[in-house]
Specification:
The protein has twelve helices and 16 strands. Helix 4 packs across helix 5. A six-stranded antiparallel sheet has the order 2-1-4-5-6-7.
């Protein structure tokens, strides 16, 4: 899989861009704040249908476009998958609200046909590596859940639909909990939403665990190589409720290349029953609080190096190594599931790495069909690497072949 052409209109710093992308390795060179990261973000948008770094997708619309009556950012790409060429178009339409505060509407076309957002997922796969993504390791649980869900959605488009319906069900249940707390009423009104939440939530949990069981094999192998065979990586999924009793607490599920550490994934039916029982057992407590306190929207994901939590106790170097292992492992997992290599997007990554890790990452490029890197200084690449790469220069939202 590789990107052939991209067109950007009113996206971030790009007022207008038309660019052919060569296969293999492309290096975008330029000073900071010129548009290098925004370009990678645009490419990755076609994989996830959301921004990888903006707090709100409306931030993707070029601020100069806000002066227009109907601000629109338009992204168009042509890519090759297997032996066929496909197109995708995304439109970010910002309604009237003044200062870019209007409601954002997204439209997506795949091969010229308008599709729901969830159906657009999985057509184009990419793996993006930004320096600030260390938050996946040591940041909030919400960031880890988001990373996990966005990765799964690239392989299983139906997952995004189920996740969206789960969040909607949680919102409806929370509204009912608040109403019961304020006005009272028959608590059996919650039965319907308990069933909806537990059914869809158990599907999400089961998919996450199944994915991690496969994904951990790839990430642990890469981590062992990066640590020169000295450190084992173990991924731990922590549900917000226990499957063994009704008293709460987290029961962790570990996924490790060591057979002694690997957990057995519960059947979805078992997860459904445990989730439903837990919701019923804490119903009165949740009515008082007015919020659903358990479920996959409260679950967490942790990474352990030799059984030590990297997010809590890991050094900066260890956290960076885990992130590298995750991203290279993600690339191999996507290839394993789709039989296509995802496009690899690396933003100023080499500048943060020592020589052994830099060599390992450059070695991973050999496995991909296409990689796009950014750099402020081409001096961090060796001459042989540059000889086999295409250099493009970025300045104030323009990309050109010559500096």
């Amino acid at each position: 899989m590789f990107l052939k052409h991209i067109s950007l209109t009113n996206f971030r710093t790009f007022k207008r861009l038309e660019l052919d992308i060569p296969p293999h390795v492309t290096v975008l060179v330029g000073n900071n704040a010129q548009g290098k990261t925004s370009f990678l973000e645009a490419v990755n948008f076609f994989s996830t249908m959301t921004s990888v770094q903006a707090g709100k997708d409306r931030e993707l619309v070029n601020f100069l476009a806000l002066e227009e009556e109907l601000p629109v950012a338009r992204l168009v790409m042509e890519f090759q998958r297997a032996n066929a060429v496909h197109s995708m178009e995304a439109r970010l339409i910002l309604g009237n609200g003044g200062n870019g505060n209007g409601k954002l509407r997204k439209e997506v076309l795949v091969d010229g046909i308008k599709r729901p957002l969830q159906q657009a997922l999985g057509n184009f796969n990419s793996v993006i590596f930004l320096p600030q993504m260390t938050d996946i390791i040591d940041g909030s649980p919400d960031g880890r859940r988001r990373y996990l869900d966005m990765t799964i959605a690239q392989v299983y488009p139906g997952y995004a639909r189920e996740l969206s319906e789960y969040i909607q069900a949680i919102s409806q249940r929370n509204a009912l909990l608040k109403m019961l707390a304020e006005r009272g009423g028959d608590t059996q009104q919650l039965d319907f939403w308990d069933e909806q939440v537990s059914e869809k939530g158990s599907f999400i949990m089961h998919m996450r665990m199944h994915m991690l069981e496969e994904f951990e094999v790839q990430a642990a192998r890469v981590h062992l190589t990066l640590s020169e065979g000295k450190s084992d990586l173990m991924i731990c999924y922590q549900p917000s409720f226990s499957l063994k009793d009704k008293e709460g607490g987290q029961e962790a599920f570990t996924f490790s290349s060591s057979n002694d550490s690997r957990s057995t994934i519960p059947a979805q039916k078992e997860l459904h029953t445990a989730f439903l029982n837990r919701l019923r057992s804490i119903r009165n407590e949740e009515i008082l609080r007015g919020v659903t306190t358990v479920g996959p929207h409260r679950d967490d994901l942790r990474f352990f190096i030799d059984q030590v939590d990297a997010g809590t106790y890991g050094s900066r170097g260890q956290i960076r190594t885990v992130l590298m292992a995750l991203k290279i492992g993600e690339m191999h997992w996507l290839h394993e599931k789709t039989e296509e290599w995802p496009v690899l997007l690396l933003d100023e990554t080499l500048a943060e790495l020592d020589l052994p890790h830099r060599d390992a990452l450059l070695g991973a490029l050999g496995d991909s069909e296409q990689a796009i890197l950014t750099a402020t200084d081409v001096g961090m690449f060796n001459a042989d690497f540059l000889k086999e790469s295409t250099l493009l220069y970025v300045e104030q939202g323009l990309i050109k072949k010559n500096p």
